[in-house]
Specification:
This protein has about 280 residues and is α+β, with helices and mostly antiparallel strands. It has seven helices and ten strands. The longest helix is centred in the C-terminal third of the chain and has 27 residues.
Length: about 280
């Protein structure tokens, strides 16, 4: 039984109980540029890597504002991300108009997951090929959710998705216990360092990353490039210039004399060993 017999339709199960079209959509998320999210008790920070398709083009927007208290960062197909962010924005407007209060983050995430799940059980639809990190603040505190193309959703303290996100996850796991009590500046610093880890050797600049913040008394907004560059310089994210190697010091007359004496002793020892070998018996090994 080959995989291509069961991956032509999203509603066809394989004998192993898998939906390959859904797994392909999840693979599309892994191919997208990295997106990172961190939260504390009062703030949530989103960061993403700006990736251009060519040197002649600009990068696509990866962070979207949904409401004053909610924003999303995406990894995967940007077109699908725009559609879902527009859906979330519409739901927040309708809820606010009806109940005159902000949409709870958890309820919005559940509606988004239900919308993604429908695409896994309709033969005329395809799963959304995008993963979303939803950052929000409501009456119950700060929240960070990850919405998967399969319709699953998870709440995290910190998470990273997209291409080369494993290095960022490793850093976040080392710093996991400190995030709850972190300040806004510390969260941004950790987000920048995690972004640098996902670049894997490439120099971190404000032009290759985007930072967004939401928190208590601070509506969701994207930081401008000048502010991000100042934060990078302040946190010493940019690698220091390499120290030039020390020049070799010239040998002194005393060192030269010492080397000559050592060579004379080594020659004399070799002559004596040859004489003993010629007249002695072989050694037992």
């Amino acid at each position: 039984m080959f995989r291509n017999q069961y991956d032509t339709d999203v509603t066809t199960w394989s004998p192993a109980g898998r939906l390959f079209q859904v797994e392909y959509a999840m693979e599309a998320v892994k191919q997208g540029s990295a997106a990172i999210g961190l939260r504390s008790k009062t703030h949530v920070v989103l960061a993403c890597v700006n990736k251009a398709n060519s040197e002649l083009s600009s990068h696509q927007k990866k962070i979207f504002k949904v409401a004053d208290h909610i924003g999303v960062a995406i990894a995967g197909l940007t077109a699908d991300g725009r559609v879902l962010s527009r859906y979330m924005r519409s739901e927040c407007i309708n809820y606010n108009y009806t109940y005159e209060s902000p949409f709870p983050v958890g309820r919005l995430v559940v509606q988004l997951a239900d919308k993604a799940q429908v695409c896994t059980q309709r033969s005329w639809k395809r799963p959304y090929g995008v993963g979303l990190l939803v950052a929000g603040l409501d009456e119950s505190g700060a929240h960070l959710y990850y919405n998967c193309p399969s319709g699953n959703y998870f709440e995290y303290q910190a998470f990273a998705i997209g291409s080369r996100s494993q290095a960022a996850k490793t850093y976040l796991e080392r710093r996991f216990e400190n995030f709850t009590g972190s300040s806004r500046e510390d969260l941004i610093k950790d987000a920048l360092i995690a972004t640098r880890e996902s670049l894997q050797g490439e120099k971190l600049r404000s032009s290759v990353c985007t930072i967004a913040v939401v928190g208590v008394g601070e509506p969701f907004h994207i930081l401008d490039q000048e502010t991000v560059q100042q934060l990078i310089d302040a946190f010493e994210i940019v690698k220091e210039e390499e120290v030039p190697p020390a020049e070799p010091q010239p040998a002194t007359e005393q060192d030269a004399a010492t080397d000559q004496d050592a060579a004379t002793d080594q020659s004399a020892g070799a002559d004596q060993g040859a004489a003993e070998t010629q007249g002695g018996s072989p050694m037992d090994i």
